Amino acid sequence: MQTLSRVFTATGLAAVVLLFGLTASPAALDVRGAVAGQQAPALRLPTADGTYLSLADQKGNVVLIDFWASWCAPCRHAFPAIDQLFVDFRSRGFRVIAVNLDEKRQDAVDFLVARPHGIDVVFDPRGDSARAFGLTGMPSSYLIGRDGTIRYAHAGYTDKVLDAYRLEIERLLSEPAGGEHTR
Amino acid sequence: MTRTGRMVLLTLAALAVAMWTAGCATVQPWERARLANPCMVFDYNGGQADFASHWQSAREGSSGGFGVQGGGCGCK
Amino acid sequence: MQVGEREPAPAPRNRWRPLAVAGVCVTATALVAAGSLRGENILNIQFHTFQDSRGVTVLEPIVDLDKDFTERSGLKVKFGVDAITGASDSCARCHADGANSQRTFVNVDYRRKIGDYKLDVGGQISRENFYAADTAMVSISRDLNKGNTTIAGGYSFSLNQPQLHPTQSVENQYAHDLFFSVTQTLTKNTILQLAYDYNRISGYQSSPFLRTRVNDIMVVGNTPDLRSRQAVVVRLRQALPGDTYLQADYRRYFDTWSLASNTFSLGVEHYFKPSLLVGFTYRWYGQTGADFYQPSYTGNPIYYTGDFRLQPFNSGTYTGHVVYTPAHRLLDLLPDKTAIDLQYDRYQASTQFASSMFTLGLRIPL
Question: Per the CB < 8 Å rule, is A137 touching C198?
Fold first, then answer.
């Protein structure tokens, strides 16, 4: 009985130590991706018809880059919501680049066919742009200001994130194009 | 070594292996297409898992070990 | 009468409580209406039928509602009316007075994200003739390595109270359970889980309904008051080419009653179409008996039992299941992506016991 309780205590302590060890080790902590304030990494990806879309061409506009995939459950809610943002704000200089990360193009096509949309969709099956932006979760999105710097980053999608988008886009659209933004 | 001691050692060894594999190839969040499939999620149908555990504990002398979460699409 | 046999009971009528199920549906609707719909909210309704070689047939409906309230918190409520009381610890149905007994249970689980940790707090209440069980549980988990590693641990406490029918006296049984697990994504197609479970039960652990033969007299069993149980589990999920998935589980169990077991389970699932999933699983189970177990006893044994779960035996279970997710809304009523699942289990033990189980389930995303 005493041996058993000693063994049990030892196992419990070992488990706790391992747990803390894993959470504390630098390799285990999530590496932060592209952060606000940085110049956005270059992005140039093909659309469905083969033409290339580039982030650099969008300088002067406020751009939302949304990384999504057909298998990502929150993306099913995010996609139509982001399309609606585009409808609401495009006249004021707002653009969306929806980067699809499906490895199989057909999965993405099936998803898109079921969801009529006005936003631009580009395809990156190898995930190079995702790597460049350092995504830590799916879906991930980055709001780029008129000067090409990342201003806001979001991982995940909820109604709260959607509300945040509206506020952030309004703020970014109110900034003058091409000049220094004031904090 | 007692049987309990052997089992504890085995578990710790297994955990050590798990920690080691944790340092191996990291699957990126956008590469989780197949991992997001319900077939890859442990006990996806929780109701079915509970029912199985129920009739098994009614017939068998063992219990426990199953019903823990983890894996899936990793979506935030 | 042979050991392990309970007194003959009349075949119970198939019963379930429509009112109880309706009550759950009302609660479910109220929960759905409260708060906006978001995330992966699921209503899972299942009907199980259980038929065994003793001619017993029962029906068990279970309703399971899972709802996110905010992006950080959610609630899961499960309710069931279970007539497999021969399947409960009390084996009340083994006795004529418990023949039409039903077990009703409610399980509630609240989950919350606190920083990088996820906390689950829950409880279960279960009631039937001659047996009550109350459980409280807490667990915590954390994702590491961009979601490639999940560490989880938890504790639960149960108070189980069998009534020593036909007397009115109630015994207490206390069970502590502790678990710890690591789930690791190995490749884009492979995930591995290691888990350890420790369980300690103290208090009355016999049954007033199961008798054994001691010196040619049928008596109620007498088992030790303490049982410490441990299980180590390894589980693998592997995605194979061609929309096929492999599932392999192994559990090694042993306890202080010297009962040890091995459980192996192997399953394959395949998508014939994106909307049609078919799977097959085989589970093998083998256990030694408890050290004080004997088919019958002579002399002056300290411990003796008629509990059939403590005998050495092995068993095999064959399971087939189909999940169908129609592209068009079912009955034009149910939401998109509602899935119907059907499952059949066939269980055969070396003790000549066999049972068939059939499940019909409806999984409704909200």
Answer: no
